[in-house]
Design a protein that fits this description.
By secondary structure, this protein is of the alpha/beta class.
């Protein structure tokens, strides 16, 4: 057995750690998404037993993610819980298709600013929503309404003993999680989120606190197999937009997580197209079961690596432990206070906001920082899908603008020809600026226009420069001398 599974001991230990990390997150993400808690566990189980067995990234762990909470909540509120399975199934099939077409590696080309802006926007909406949940109040639907309603919710909570008690449980959960990393190493063997939930549960039971608790249906009762009526509305434009948003966000988050996990260990590197297909398969199965969508989750994945995992066996075993817990101890979920789960999600939402990245970008790349902030603001004020599209559009515009950087240097010695040097990338975006500068050159003296410093010269610019050169000089003045770009000479040679 040792020869066939040389790392079984390390993987077994790591699987226990990942299970303990995943358990409260699976339940918390499900409750925050407005679905039964068991659906979060089902997604975690599928992430271990299905995606965990497949090729791609050997050490990253998949399951329900805080990054999709806001989108799932919006989808359930708009289309109903019955439609969630169809949306997740369609997103999974799209991921499978993209993996088969070898598009996985292209997700690495998505601007990091857009992805971090997306996560920041999700974080803000998640925090706003969970503040209501921590107080035992019902949150408004839109992100902007959640933020605008916070002062009124606070005023309502201050005069309510039940709301203040609920807030105290949520705040206590956050405090335990923040301070847990300062505990002795032996104590930190228990994940902070699990310790915080356990302490909140014991406190709630011991003092009979008037706080809401998780509602339990049972694993099989929570499964929502998509019926024929669920597929009827899939062709609607809003549903298609939601499916695309699920696909884009889940794929980007998974593949960015894979890149981060690769930096944590010396084992085999991620095969991005296979990892995308593994995620697609997992989401397709989750969709068939009516469960939450999955992504690879950096919190669980880093815990897996740090616990000493060596192979994919650790993530498969963590799925086994989730299945055994859901099957044998479902009543234990009913003891968990909801404000404790809200505290976990508040902590997770805060970690989604890349404050250090914003500061770093602002110092060195202000354009990227503005894209990050604009994406986050658009997600909060509009919605998830359109916010991401706005971020992508801004990123494309910035890239096109940067790629069009060009400079014109003019040397006029007062006698002889005027020498003009163009360098950079000459594209139609900067054509008006180029022509305005060239028009200012004297027409009664010879001009030498040197294009050898250009890295790129598109057809529109070439035609415009040739037309300018043909008509620029006054009668009796030598025509403009054009020096071809080096790239053109290399091509023609």
């Amino acid at each position: 057995m040792d020869r066939r599974f040389p790392h079984l001991r390390q993987d077994f230990t790591a699987s226990i750690v990942v299970f303990l990390v995943a358990l409260p997150l699976c339940v918390g993400v499900a409750v925050a998404s407005g679905v039964p808690a068991e659906l979060g566990l089902i997604t975690g189980i599928v992430g271990g037993l299905v995606t965990g067995l497949m090729r791609g990234s050997s050490l990253q762990v998949s399951g329900p993610a805080a990054g999709l909470t806001v989108l799932v909540f919006e989808a359930v509120q708009t289309f109903g819980l019955a439609a969630l399975g169809v949306i997740v199934l369609a997103a999974g099939l799209l991921q499978l298709a993209m993996g088969a077409l070898k598009l996985g590696r292209w997700f690495r080309a998505i601007s990091v600013s857009v992805v971090e802006g997306m996560l920041a926007g999700i974080g803000f909406v998640l925090i706003a929503g969970q503040l209501y949940a921590a107080a035992g109040l019902e949150a408004p639907a839109s992100g902007l309404d959640k933020l605008a309603g916070l002062p009124g919710a606070l005023a309502e909570a201050v005069v309510s003993t039940e709301a203040l008690t609920s807030l105290a449980v949520g705040a206590g959960t956050i405090v335990v999680m923040v301070l847990w990393k300062h505990m002795p190493e032996r104590v930190r063997a228990v994940p902070g989120a699990l310790a915080a939930v356990a302490l909140a549960t014991l406190t709630s039971l011991g003092f009979s606190l008037p706080v809401a608790e998780v509602e339990v249906q049972g694993l099989l009762d929570a499964v929502q197999l998509p019926g024929s009526e669920s597929f009827a509305g899939i062709a609607g434009l809003s549903v298609v937009g939601t499916i695309l948003a699920f696909t884009l966000i889940a794929s980007a988050e998974s593949l960015f997580s894979a890149a981060a996990v690769d930096r944590l260990h010396d084992g085999p590197r991620t095969q991005y197209d296979k990892e995308l297909m593994a995620q697609g398969t997992g989401n397709a199965v989750c969709g068939l079961l009516g469960a939450l969508p999955m992504t690879a989750v950096i919190v669980r994945s880093s815990a897996n690596v740090q616990a000493g995992a060596k192979t994919k066996a650790s993530r498969v075993l963590h799925g086994v432990w989730l299945l055994l817990f859901a099957a044998l101890l479902p009543s234990a979920l009913a003891l968990i206070p909801l404000p404790a789960l809200a505290g976990i999600l508040l902590h997770a939402g805060w970690k989604l906001i890349p404050l250090r990245a914003i500061v770093t970008l602002w110092r060195g790349h202000r354009g990227e920082a503005l894209i990050l902030v604009a994406t986050a603001v658009a997600i909060v004020t509009v919605n998830m899908f359109e916010g991401v599209l706005i971020g992508l559009a801004l990123s494309v515009v910035k890239t096109a603008w940067d790629a069009s950087h060009i400079s014109l240097d003019v040397i006029d010695k007062g006698a002889g020809p005027v020498q003009a040097y163009l360098s950079g990338n000459a594209t139609f975006l900067k054509l008006p600026k180029i022509l305005d500068s060239l028009e200012d050159l004297p027409q009664d003296r010879p001009v030498q226009l040197d294009l050898s410093g250009l890295h790129h010269l598109d057809h529109a610019c070439r035609t415009a420069l040739e037309n300018w050169a043909a008509r620029h000089s006054s009668p009796g003045t030598d025509p403009v001398q054009l020096t071809e770009p080096v790239m053109a000479k290399a091509t023609s040679g």
